[in-house]
Specification:
This protein is of the alpha/beta class. The protein has helices at residues 25-30, 49-55, 72-79, 98-106, 195-215, 224-234, 239-250, 258-276, and strands at residues 10-18, 35-42, 59-62, 86-91, 94-96, 115-126, 129-130, 137-144, 148-149, 171-172, 179-189. The chain has a single domain (10-276), classed as Spore Coat Polysaccharide Biosynthesis Protein SpsA, Chain A. It is 33% helix and 24% strand. The strands form 2 sheets. Strands 1, 2, 3, 4, 5, 6, 7, 8 and 11 form a 9-stranded mixed β-sheet that branches. Helix 5 (195-215) crosses helix 8 and helix 7 packs antiparallel against helix 8. The longest helix has 21 residues, at 195-215.
Length: 279
């Protein structure tokens, strides 16, 4: 894709949710496309996260969770002064690629009346290098906030996620309609290098996911074929092995060398964590 040398201001409200992200926030902010509004929503960080947000001319909002719904992302949609219908959610460990910025620049924003949101593909980084193959997460993180919302699920008794919505997608609001599209360019996800941090984070995720499985609490994915695949996968025995084979063999992670193997191995480890936490 040809990059745009003189980008125009995108009619987007970009939201970055943070807590103690001083090591990663500046890189995330510097890589953003030229959004008309950038808001860092911070959960009482004890480090320099708020100062970094201000230094990069982002709006800064504070969030303190009350233990109930809405959780953090939906709270943003409900309470922030969003100047645009379209919202891009970015995590501090994600980096917008030049290709993604160019794709956003090329979009006809005035012709999206029948669209509710877009999936964006997350490509993992391994030791600073993007993995081209293997498992790649897809998030519906570009959405029209007048048409979509994050569902409230019955998981407040489940430990592990806390203030942030879990691993499920936003859904259409009652009475709303719109297609769900998919962008081609990737969003880099820098979440593999710190092994101890990864293990601690995924131990929490595994507790929450097993609780969701036990109670059959998952909201439906907005795309039918994705919902079908997820439902089948949750019922498979030996999910860790299947996750490894899917990433390393079926998705050609082997071509990425040690990085592809490490990504697939961590998928195996994660689903083994979930299996160990059966209640």
């Amino acid at each position: 894709m040809m990059l745009i040398s003189n980008p125009v201001m995108l009619p987007l409200s970009c939201i970055i949710v943070t807590k103690n992200e001083e090591d990663r926030l500046a890189r995330c902010l510097k890589a953003l496309p030229k959004c008309a509004q950038v808001i860092v929503v911070d959960s009482n960080s004890a480090d320099q996260t708020p100062a970094i947000a201000r230094a990069h001319d982002a709006e800064l909002a504070s969030f303190t969770w009350n233990g109930q719904y809405p959780k953090k992302r939906q709270w943003c949609l409900d309470n922030l002064n969003l100047r645009h219908d379209w919202v891009l959610f970015i995590d501090a460990d994600e980096i917008c690629t030049p290709q993604l910025a160019a794709e956003l620049q090329a979009m006809e924003w005035g012709a999206l009346d029948n669209v509710a949101g877009f999936f964006i593909r997350g490509a993992y980084l391994w030791r600073g290098k993007a993995l081209r193959f293997g498992m790649q997460n897809n998030k519906l993180c570009l959405l029209n906030h007048r048409k979509m919302e994050f569902p409230a699920v019955d998981d407040l008794h489940c430990s592990g996620m806390g203030e942030i919505e879990g691993h499920y997608q936003p859904v259409l609001k009652d009475g709303s309609s719109g297609a769900i599209g998919r962008l081609r360019a990737p969003l880099y996800h820098d979440a593999l290098d710190d092994k101890q941090a990864w293990l601690a984070r995924h131990e929490r995720y595994a507790r929450w996911e097993q609780c969701m499985n036990n109670g059959n609490l998952w909201p439906k994915d907005p795309v039918l074929w994705r919902e079908t695949l997820k439902s089948v996968f949750r019922k498979l025995p030996c999910r860790g092995l299947w996750a490894f084979l899917h990433s390393y063999i079926f998705k050609l992670g082997v071509i990425d060398g040690i990085g592809g193997y490490e990504l697939a191995r961590r998928r195996f480890v994660y689903y083994r964590m979930i299996a160990r936490k059966r209640q």
